[in-house]
Specification:
Strand content: 15-25%
Number of helices: 8
Distance between the termini: 15 Å
Catalytic activity: 4-demethyl-7-[(3S)-3-amino-3-carboxypropyl]wyosine(37) in tRNA(Phe) + S-adenosyl-L-methionine = 7-[(3S)-3-amino-3-carboxypropyl]wyosine(37) in tRNA(Phe) + S-adenosyl-L-homocysteine + H(+)
Protein name: tRNA(Phe) 7-[(3-amino-3-carboxypropyl)-4-demethylwyosine(37)-N(4)]-methyltransferase
Largest sheet: 7 strands, antiparallel
Organism: Endocarpon pusillum (strain Z07020 / HMAS-L-300199) (Lichen-forming fungus)
Keywords: Methyltransferase, S-adenosyl-L-methionine, Transferase, tRNA processing
EC number: 2.1.1.282
Structural class: alpha+beta
Number of strands: 7
Number of domains: 1
């Protein structure tokens, strides 16, 4: 039998679900999208339907272009991390997203590769490419990074008894870097272990440009370090990984249904 669920957990879950129940147009969090991703909605609803579990933050996966900060101010990348994203390594503060999509990005038609820098948030012809651009880079200049980041989901659980099968379901579904957090106060009956479902295996990151500062305090430029054909290749790989990520989400949704056994008071098994 699972241990009794603390009343404090029920209160926390009710507060979280109240926020999730509002229409997407009214719901907001710290991510650029500001709402629950459609690709992960079924999994979230499935988990939240069971006693002892509640999702606290999520990102179904995304393609992103991130400009590193200059070390000053708040870092929007870190704010996104707080709601479940793995984040794009590299900014120290004041960075910003130039492009974010929680769906695959397909660009068709003649001259599609020519459109990609503009679509991804870079100027049409911001600077030199290839060797000439790389020779202009100097240490300390900020990079622009392209990334695909797979799903990450945080679930607060009522006890380790609840957390263990959820963790097993996630790992068996391909999210092999999943783990349990918030284990410092397990002697506290009100402690709520947090399961983080994630994988690094599908991640993709590449430096595609750097920020060329203007010595006269004028507008800066993006100096592209790769060709438009390289953008096309990156986007193709990211789209393929988006679909692989979706298969793992669906596998986790099916595996997670074993949690219902625990919700009914029997032993939770995977």
């Amino acid at each position: 039998m699972p241990p009794p669920i603390p009343h404090t957990f029920y209160r926390k879950k009710a507060t979280i679900l109240e926020g999730l129940s509002v229409p997407d147009s009214e719901y907001s969090d710290k991510s650029p999208k500001g709402s629950v991703d459609e690709r992960i909605r079924e999994l979230i609803d499935e988990i939240n339907a069971y006693d002892g579990f509640v999702t606290t933050s999520s990102c179904a996966g995304r393609i992103a272009v991130f400009q590193e900060g200059n070390g000053q101010g708040s870092d929007s990348r870190n704010e996104e991390d707080a709601v479940g994203s793995s984040g794009v390594p590299g900014g120290k503060g004041g960075g910003k997203f130039l492009f974010v999509s929680h769906e695959p990005v397909y660009v068709a038609g003649d001259g599609a590769s020519q459109q990609l820098p503009r679509i991804l948030g870079l100027d049409e012809e911001p600077g030199a490419c290839g060797a000439k651009g790389s020779e202009s880079w100097a240490p300390g200049q900020r990079f622009v990074r392209f990334a695909f980041e797979p799903m990450i989901l945080h679930i607060m659980t009522a006890s380790l008894h609840h957390a263990k099968p959820l963790l097993s379901a996630a790992i068996n579904s391909g999210f092999r870097e999943s783990g349990v957090q918030s284990l410092k106060n397990l002697d506290d009956p009100n402690a709520c272990p947090m399961v983080a479902i994630r994988t690094a295996g599908l991640g993709l990151e590449a430096i595609i440009a750097f920020v060329a500062e203007n010595s006269n305090n004028g507008p800066y430029q993006f100096w592209q370090l790769v060709t438009k054909e390289y953008y096309t290749m990156l986007l193709k790989i990211a789209n393929e990984r988006f679909e692989a990520n979706q298969l793992r989400i669906e596998n986790t949704t099916r595996s997670g249904r074993v949690l219902k056994q625990g919700a009914n008071g029997s032993e939770i098994k995977v």
